[in-house]
Amino acid sequence: MLIFGGRSAKEWHLNFGMHNAPICSKAYRNGPSGVSKEISESGGSKAGAIHSRLVLNFPGFENIGTEACLDRLFHCAEKTGDVFNFSITPTGASETDGTSHAIREFNTRGEGWEVRSRVVQFDWYDIVESYESQTFPIGFIQNLRKYLVIFHDGTLRRYLNASRLYFIFSIYPIILMFLFALLAGAVANFVVQSFGPEGAPGLIVGLVGWIVLWLVLCRWPGDFLFLNTTVSNWGFAWDLTNRQNVLISDRMAKFGDVVAREIKASEHDEIVICGHSLGCVWAISALSLALDRDPNLLEGKQVGFLSLGSSHLKIALCEEAGWLRDHLRSVLDEPTVYWHEFQSKDDVIAFYKAHPFSPIEIADFAARCKVDRVRFKRGMSLKRYRAMKRSLYFTHNQYVRYYEKPVSFDFYIRLFGPISVSELADNPDLVFELSGKAEHMAAAG
Description:
Layout: E1 2-4, E2 12-15, E3 20-23, E4 25-26, H1 37-42, E5 52-58, H2 66-84, E6 86-90, E7 95-96, E8 101-110, E9 113-122, H3 125-132, H4 138-147, H5 155-162, H6 164-195, H7 199-219, H8 227-242, H9 246-265, E10 270-276, H10 279-293, E11 303-308, H11 312-316, H12 322-332, E12 337-344, E13 368-374, H13 382-389, H14 392-396, H15 412-416, H16 421-426, H17 430-435
Parallel strand pairs: 5-9, 5-10, 10-11, 11-12, 12-13
Antiparallel strand pairs: 1-4, 1-13, 2-3, 6-8, 7-8, 8-9
C-alpha cells in the first residue's frame, strides 16, 4: 500500500525505472487498526459521513450498453449488500440521452444509515463495437499495424520501465502471432513438400498457404485466446493517442459537457469519479475539459477519483499523448481531489507496481493520492477465483465486480456505502465494521 502526497511530500523516494518518484509515506497493508466510536455507531465518521453521492462511472473497453452496465452494477451491489448488510433499490427508470450516458438513481439502506446515489453511466460501447466488429482479416490487419507502432517508437521500453507485468501483456499478441506463424509455416511446408509442385510454383503455393493458415489461426484459436480483442484494443488506443477518430473526439467533448453539468448542479455530500481500465482515460479527460469550462467547478466539493486497473499509462506513455498528460496535470492540480488507485498482481492488463504519475514525470501536485496493491482472491471463493483466472479479461474486470467476503478494496461500498472515498482510503479497516465482521479483516495486499 503506497500513499502519494502533494507538493510538500518529499520524505521517501523509490526508483520506478525512469526516475525517482516522490512518495510521502509508506503505510501498513491493513491501514490503522483503530476505529472511531462515531464510525462504529453510525456507519460513518463525522468528517466522512455520506448521505448523498454523485457517481460518474466510466467503463473500460467493453462492448456492453449503458443499460446492461447499470443492470450489472445493480446486481453486483445487491451481492455486496449481502456482505455488508445493506439493501439497495433503484428509485426510478433510467434517464438517457441515447448517445453519451444514462442516469439511474439508487437508494441504499443499512443499519443506522441511508445513502442516495445518482449514477451517471457513460457510454462508449458503440466505439468499442466499431473496432471489434471490423471485417476479418482487413480490420485485424489495420489494427495490427497500429499495434506494431509501439515496437519502434520507444513506447515498449517505457512500458517495461513502468511495469514489467504490463510489458508482458503488451508483447502477448506478438508472441502469440509468432507461434501461429511457426505452426502455419510448418504445416504449409509439410503440405508443399508432400503434395505440392516443385521450384518457384511450390514456393508461391507454400507462401500463400502459410499466410492463409496464419490468418486462420489468428481467427481461431486467436478468438479463444483473446488475440482479436487485444489487437482491436490496441487499434483503438492508437487512434485515441493520435486523435485519429472523430467519433472519439466528439464523444470526449460530450463527456466533458455532461461532467461539467452534473458537478455544477450537484449538492451531494460526495462526488465519486470512477475509471476502469481505459475508462480512466475518458474520466481524466472529461474532468479536465469540464475544468477548462469552469476552473472553479470543484471548489467546495468532496471528490474521490477511483482508478481501477487503470490503463491511463498505456496512452500517457506514448510520445504523442501530450494532451492526456496535460489533462492529468490539470486534474491533479485540484486540491479537493483524492485519487485512489487499485492495482492487482492478478491482473496483467493493468500497470501493476507502477507509480501512477512519475513515469510521465508528474511529481508535484495538489491532489491527494493513494495506491493499494490488492489480491482478488482475498474476497472470492476459491472456485470463483479459479474460474476468473482462466481469462485475462475476466480477471481485469474483477475490480468492478462483487466479492463474497468483506475486503477493504470493495468497489460497491464506495459507490453506495455511508463512508467517503477519502475516509476509506485513509482508514480501510472501516469496511469491516460495516460488515460486522471486524474479526475477519482481510488484507488489502
